[in-house]
Amino acid sequence: MAAPPPPVSTTFLAGRHALVTGASRGIGAAIALELARAGARLTIVARGTDALTATVKLLHAAGAEAVEAATGDVSDSSVVAGLVEAAARRFGPIAIAVNNAGGAESAPFARMDAQLWRRMFALNVDSAFAVCRAVVPDMRTAGWGRIVNIASTAGLKGYPYVSAYVAAKHAVVGLTRSLALELAQ
Q1: Which of 7-11, 30-34, 129-133 has the lowest mean pLDDT?
Q2: DSSP the chain
Q3: Positions marked catalytic
Q4: Rounded Cα distance, 142 and 176, in Å
Q5: pLDDT tens, 108-123?
Q6: What is the reported pTM?
Q7: Which of 98, 101, 108, 114 could form a disulfide with 22 if both were Cys (CB 3.0 to 4.6 A apart)?
Q8: What is the pLDDT of residues 46-93, one digit of tens each?
């Protein structure tokens, strides 16, 4: 059994509310831990309840106090709207959104079907779009906000057998660049 992470110690994000999707394990859980260490109040989201519960326990073991877990499919914009609304009631408007939800399925292009293509775009692009649409109005009102969209090297170059994933990650990079130009002012 691994030792618990070091305690939460810094507070430069104290009072800020952060939402992290795909936060039940891996990169998403690590991001949530670092945001907690920086003092952010957290809403962490994933589809799987068990892994999400384990991440909440990890965060509490590290000393994080303001953590809320929410399960849901972030590729569904109505689910995202409800999650964001409930999270804002709990900890205030979301100031930091980390779009980490994602995944890859592989198939040779000749055998890839339209359903796989749509799943990759729903999980990797539609989810980021839905979260951004839900959080940007409050960020604009507050005059402060941060959006981090997790892509991959697949957003910069191609790989064989994962063309739908690569195309989706290229779309995430394009969305991020466009939003930066539009919203950074």
Answers
A1: 7-11
A2: -PPPPPPP---TTTT-EEEEES-SSHHHHHHHHHHHHTT-EEEEEES-HHHHHHHHHHHHHTT---EEEEE--TTSHHHHHHHHHHHHHHH-S--EEEE---------GGG--HHHHHHHHIIIIIHHHHHHHHHHHHHHHHT--EEEE---GGGTS--TT-HHHHHHHHHHHHHHHHHHHHH--
A3: 165
A4: 20
A5: 999 999 999 999 999 9
A6: 0.92
A7: 101
A8: 999 999 999 999 999 988 889 999 999 999 999 999 999 999 999 999
* DSSP result, 137-185: HHHHHHT--EEEE---GGGTS--TT-HHHHHHHHHHHHHHHHHHHHH--
User: For residues 118 and 6, what is the distance between their CA atoms, to the nearest angstrom?
Assistant: 40
Q: What torsion do the CA atoms of 129, 167, 46, 38 make, to the nearest 10 degrees? A: -70
